[in-house]
Every structure is written in structure tokens, then in C-alpha cells.
Amino acid sequence: MPPLDEFGLIRVWTEGRQSKEMLAKAGVTLGIGDDAAVVAGSSGQEWLFAMDTMVEEIHFRNETMSESDVGYKALAANISDIAAMGGMPKFALVSVSVPPQWDSNRMKQLYDGVYMCAEKYGVAVIGGDTTSAPRHLVVSVTVIGSIEAGKAIRRSGAKAGQFVFLTGPTGLSAGGLHGLLKKPADEGGPDSVPVPPHRLVQAHQRPSPSVKAGRILLEQGWGASLNDVSDGVASEAWEIAEASHVKLVLKETHLPLSGELVAYARDNGIHPLDWVLYGGEDYVLLGTADKRHELAMKEHFRAEGIPLFIIGEVEAGQPEVILETSAGASKPIHKRGYNHFPKGYNE
Amino acid sequence: MPPLDEFGLIRVWTEGRQSKEMLAKAGVTLGIGDDAAVVAGSSGQEWLFAMDTMVEEIHFRNETMSESDVGYKALAANISDIAAMGGMPKFALVSVSVPPQWDSNRMKQLYDGVYMCAEKYGVAVIGGDTTSAPRHLVVSVTVIGSIEAGKAIRRSGAKAGQFVFLTGPTGLSAGGLHGLLKKPADEGGPDSVPVPPHRLVQAHQRPSPSVKAGRILLEQGWGASLNDVSDGVASEAWEIAEASHVKLVLKETHLPLSGELVAYARDNGIHPLDWVLYGGEDYVLLGTADKRHELAMKEHFRAEGIPLFIIGEVEAGQPEVILETSAGASKPIHKRGYNHFPKGYNE
């Protein structure tokens, strides 16, 4: 079976199982297939529901994330799914399956991280579950958000002629993970790598979901389509292309490159573009908007102190993602998603 | 660390983390600590949120549950938490962490079970997540329910003078599990056990959450306190005693004993009371009600074809659970919860 994170096989197992009529009657505005589900609320408001799971050895390890990092990031990743619809996070439920080697003190620290993130984003933690696990820690989080009725920004709203934007640089989290995976024993050895800048490590361990950027895009009516960069720019762009039946053309020269990332990547013999396109968990927003909004968007984001990069255009055509390289060539971008611990790392 | 399922350590890690004011302002009527959280809805309605996780080797194994059983039961257990408040289940999110040995076909079967249960209880499956897992399958489910505002039946409503009731017999699921754990290789050997009756196996693999019983208790205003029997009668009675600051006195002669269970237990040299009090996952409801309702409740439940057993009384005093034995003695019942695979089974 291919890695599940990449191909979203969940659609194969869930599509068409319940009729549109049944779902509509239950009040479901948008079911499985976007960052969050949308359900009818009251007086001009709808509810958003998102659920995301982090698994030891798949998404993190002792050497890459502290206990409180795990708790913080598990909630942050879910808040990001609410941000990707333009919504406001409100409530969370947290379920932890705890292996024998995790004692009560480590669990307390994990919840310290959960509550630190909840505090920062004004989320009320209202429930969850704790069970034993035979060997690996698993954290599942459900976040409930609120949004103006009918306004949720879907993946399917991209149209030819729009521009593609990013609300921040990408690849930082992948760069941070790269550094964290180098063991201390390697230090000074022939395979040693320079210590990654604090900002990259921070991006990996304590990501910042883009709630404010999402709210601006919704409130101003600018966001035509939107995704959060959890699986990497390539994968998120593909999801928009497929959901909207359009082609996304990204321009290599327009992709934001963090200076620290470029320096760290080059010191390690890695092409920074690999991380920028295929590194996940940066939790900035990737979306499309009408060209007539470009100026107003740039001004507004600048005034708010939030980055905004115009990185490409939407064209008519079969769903695909193309990179116009700095050399002027057009290169198809594969759908490949983010893999924390590629083969070889795992044993 | 003591088994997590038993002591609900989640309270230790979560209690007092967010102020009552913050939670109230966010619209939280009831936070962590009951079967489901209660959140303000609209026009006389509130939302219920429950989250429950099932882990391979902790809650099930290949030999005890088929793939579709796992999916069915994971959703059923969550629906039961909504029933335990008197609510109506509406939506579900399902997150599955999939180890390499689970191929796509097994996953399809798991979702077959999820959707079978969803169909039966009118639940719309609106989202979730699929990730890889290094070794063991983990299924987390969040169920969202709806309930009449201010009417949710809490654990804390028991008062001295009320009677204690059960909406069905207990111990069946534990009996079924006992049979399922005997390997075929044992058959005919000196340790062989009789095959457990189909009803016990069914109770373990395809439990029926008590949504209808919960609705009656709410609509008629009869349920003063309520819990679903997920961790066993002893544990659920203790939770009510502690949340309500009362003593629950259960009468051994009043505890419902399924004839099939008694026969199967005795054939295996097991005292059926062990399963009745300490076996979990029967998903009937345990609660308390005012004595003046006793007659009307009995008639109504009989007319609806739902069992109702009066099994004891609520008394004033320090929180505890007492069993009045058939011999007339008073025996304290320990808080011990349900353990699927006790030590010795696991290796």
C-alpha cells in the first residue's frame, strides 16, 4: 500500500457511501474532501469540523519533538485546517493513546503544549480520551470552528485568470526536521552538518497556523480557493487544481526563499527548492484570488505585517501543476506529498 | 503508570487549565469530565461532542474483531457517549492510523463497518484523517450530537432517595471476548472451553448503543443522572457516585443476569458476577431516577420493548459503591475498570 499521507486513500474508502440527500438533510454543507467539513449553524453562522492525527515514528520522534512540542503541534495542525477555510477555531477534543514508556510527567508536558497552543488561539479544550497504546504514542485532535454561513473558502474555487498566492515562505519545517534528525554523535564527524538556524527548528516544532491570514481572505472576500500547506506546496497546489479542474502554473523565481533556509540547505548540499515544494507542515496558506484584488491584498497584508507572495497563475486545462523554472522551462510538478522519515531513516 | 483506561488520568492533566470564565464565554456549558461536552447551539438546542479511541492490542485483536467489527464498534462506542447524555447522534469524524500489514481491502472493510453503524443510527460521516502507523491500528472517532438546551443528563444529578437502574443486562461483551480469546488450537484440549453463545460474541463485536433509551429518559424528564456502561457497572456507578457526592447501593439479587451468560460463565468456572460488574462495553445505560417515576418508567420501557432493571438505591454519604450480596452482607465495590487483555494474555 502506498504511504497513506500522500494519496488520501480515505476518499476511495468513503466516497459515495452516503447520499447527497441524506447529507443535505442532516445539515451538511460540505462533507469529506476539504480541509474541514461545513455544517449548518444558526443565524448566519456555520460550523467547521477538522480532525488530524499525529503518530510517533511517522510524524515525530523523541529526537525531533519534545513532549510539549507534540501537544502544541497536534492542536496547531488542526487549527490550521480551520484557517484554511477562513474560519475561527473555537473548540478542541484531544485523544491520546499512551505507550508504557510515556509516564505521567511526560503526559503532563504533552498537555502543557496542547494548552499553550489553545491559549494562544483562544480555543476551549472540551473533551477527548486517553487510552493505553502497546508501543507508539498517537495523538488525534478534533477542532471545531465557526464561520460566516456560505463563506467557507473551498479548494474548488480556483478559476483561470486568477493568481496563486502564499502567505509565507515554505520549506522551513522540513529544513528544521533535517537538522533535528542528525544525531549528536555525528557532530564533528565527517558527516556532520551545521546546526540548523533556530527559526527552522521552531518552524518544525512550534508551527503557527495562519488564522489571521485566513480571516482577512474571508472577510475581504478575496480568497477564491484556499489550502493550508501541511503536505507541501506541490501537494496542496495539486489538490486545488483537481478540486477546481484547472492548471496551476507556479513560477520558480516567485517562490519565497527564506535566506536562512537557502544557506542551511546549500551548506548541506540540498537544493532548497526540494524543501520549498515538497516539505510539509509550514501551515502557511496557499490559495488563488482574482487579479483585480492584487493591489488591495498586497497593501492590506503589508499593513497587517503578514507576508503575501504572488507565486503563479491559474490557467484553464486538465488538472495539473507546472513549474516555470528560472531557466524558462516548463516542468510538471508531481503530486508527491510530505514524508517525515523517508525509507532508510526508519530503522 | 497505572492502566490509563481505569483511572481517567486525563483529568489530572486537564483540570483547571482553562478558567470557567473563558469556557463560559466560549459557549461551553459542560467541559471535560462527562460522557460528552455540551456547547451552546441555537434556538433551544445544544451540541454534544464526544471522542473515543480504539487501539489494536489494547481494545481488539485480529482474533477478536474483524475489520468491519472494528469500524462498527469504534463508531458505536462514540454514539453511546451521546446516548449517555440523552442526546441524538448527528455527525462523525473518523481518523485511522494504518500499519503496513493493513492493506487497502482491509481498510475498505473497516469503513464498511463504520458506514453500517452510521446508517443504522442516522449519523453523517463528515470527515476524518488517515495516516500511516508503524505497527498497530488506531481508530479515533469524534461524534457530534444534538440535545434540547439545558436538558443533558449528567453524571452529577444523582440524589439520595433515588433508585439506580440499568437499561439492559451487562457482562455479555466480556463473556463474548472470553470466548473469542480461546484459540482454535485449544479446542478439544484439556483447557478447551465451550463455544460462547452467538449473542455474547455479537455483544462484543457489534454493540448497540442505547440511543432510544437515552431519548426516553430525557424526553420524559426521568433521567436524573446517567452513564453508559463502557468500562463496567462498577466503574460507571463509581463515576456517578463521585460526580454526585452520593453512595450507590446495588443489590446483587436485582442485577440482571442473562441466562446465556450465566450458563457460559459456569461452564468455564467463572463467577458471572465478575463479568456483570467489571465487564465493559455493553453500552447499556446506568442511571438514577426519582422513585415517583418508577411505575411510569417501567410501563413506558415495557411498551417500547426496552429492558429496565431497578438494581439499587442512592444514599447520602461519602462517594462509594456498595453491593448488598444475596447473603445479606454489604460489600464495597472497587473502582476497577475494564481491561480487555489482562496481564498474561498479552504475550
UniProtKB/TrEMBL annotation, chains A, B:
<feature type="binding site">
    <location>
        <begin position="128"/>
        <end position="129"/>
    </location>
    <ligand>
        <name>ATP</name>
    </ligand>
</feature>
<feature type="binding site">
    <location>
        <position position="81"/>
    </location>
    <ligand>
        <name>Mg(2+) 3</name>
    </ligand>
</feature>
<keyword id="KW-0808">Transferase</keyword>
<feature type="binding site">
    <location>
        <position position="59"/>
    </location>
    <ligand>
        <name>substrate</name>
    </ligand>
</feature>
<keyword id="KW-0067">ATP-binding</keyword>
<feature type="binding site">
    <location>
        <position position="338"/>
    </location>
    <ligand>
        <name>substrate</name>
    </ligand>
</feature>
<feature type="binding site">
    <location>
        <position position="129"/>
    </location>
    <ligand>
        <name>Mg(2+) 1</name>
    </ligand>
</feature>
<keyword id="KW-0418">Kinase</keyword>
<dbReference type="InterPro" id="IPR036676">
    <property type="entry name" value="PurM-like_C_sf"/>
</dbReference>
<feature type="binding site">
    <location>
        <position position="81"/>
    </location>
    <ligand>
        <name>Mg(2+) 2</name>
    </ligand>
</feature>
<feature type="binding site">
    <location>
        <position position="155"/>
    </location>
    <ligand>
        <name>ATP</name>
    </ligand>
</feature>
<feature type="domain" description="PurM-like N-terminal">
    <location>
        <begin position="33"/>
        <end position="146"/>
    </location>
</feature>
<feature type="binding site">
    <location>
        <position position="228"/>
    </location>
    <ligand>
        <name>Mg(2+) 3</name>
    </ligand>
</feature>
<feature type="binding site">
    <location>
        <position position="231"/>
    </location>
    <ligand>
        <name>Mg(2+) 5</name>
    </ligand>
</feature>
<keyword id="KW-0547">Nucleotide-binding</keyword>
<comment type="pathway">
    <text>Cofactor biosynthesis; thiamine diphosphate biosynthesis; thiamine diphosphate from thiamine phosphate: step 1/1.</text>
</comment>
<feature type="binding site">
    <location>
        <position position="52"/>
    </location>
    <ligand>
        <name>Mg(2+) 1</name>
    </ligand>
</feature>
<protein>
    <recommendedName>
        <fullName>Thiamine-monophosphate kinase</fullName>
        <ecNumber>2.7.4.16</ecNumber>
    </recommendedName>
</protein>
<keyword id="KW-0460">Magnesium</keyword>
<comment type="similarity">
    <text>Belongs to the thiamine-monophosphate kinase family.</text>
</comment>
<keyword id="KW-0479">Metal-binding</keyword>
<feature type="binding site">
    <location>
        <position position="35"/>
    </location>
    <ligand>
        <name>Mg(2+) 3</name>
    </ligand>
</feature>
<dbReference type="GO" id="GO:0009030">
    <property type="term" value="F:thiamine-phosphate kinase activity"/>
</dbReference>
<dbReference type="Pfam" id="PF00586">
    <property type="entry name" value="AIRS"/>
</dbReference>
<feature type="binding site">
    <location>
        <position position="52"/>
    </location>
    <ligand>
        <name>Mg(2+) 2</name>
    </ligand>
</feature>
<dbReference type="InterPro" id="IPR006283">
    <property type="entry name" value="ThiL-like"/>
</dbReference>
<feature type="binding site">
    <location>
        <position position="35"/>
    </location>
    <ligand>
        <name>Mg(2+) 4</name>
    </ligand>
</feature>
<comment type="function">
    <text>Catalyzes the ATP-dependent phosphorylation of thiamine-monophosphate (TMP) to form thiamine-pyrophosphate (TPP), the active form of vitamin B1.</text>
</comment>
<dbReference type="InterPro" id="IPR036921">
    <property type="entry name" value="PurM-like_N_sf"/>
</dbReference>
<feature type="binding site">
    <location>
        <position position="81"/>
    </location>
    <ligand>
        <name>Mg(2+) 4</name>
    </ligand>
</feature>
<feature type="binding site">
    <location>
        <position position="281"/>
    </location>
    <ligand>
        <name>substrate</name>
    </ligand>
</feature>
<feature type="binding site">
    <location>
        <position position="230"/>
    </location>
    <ligand>
        <name>ATP</name>
    </ligand>
</feature>
<feature type="binding site">
    <location>
        <position position="111"/>
    </location>
    <ligand>
        <name>ATP</name>
    </ligand>
</feature>
<keyword id="KW-0784">Thiamine biosynthesis</keyword>
<dbReference type="InterPro" id="IPR016188">
    <property type="entry name" value="PurM-like_N"/>
</dbReference>
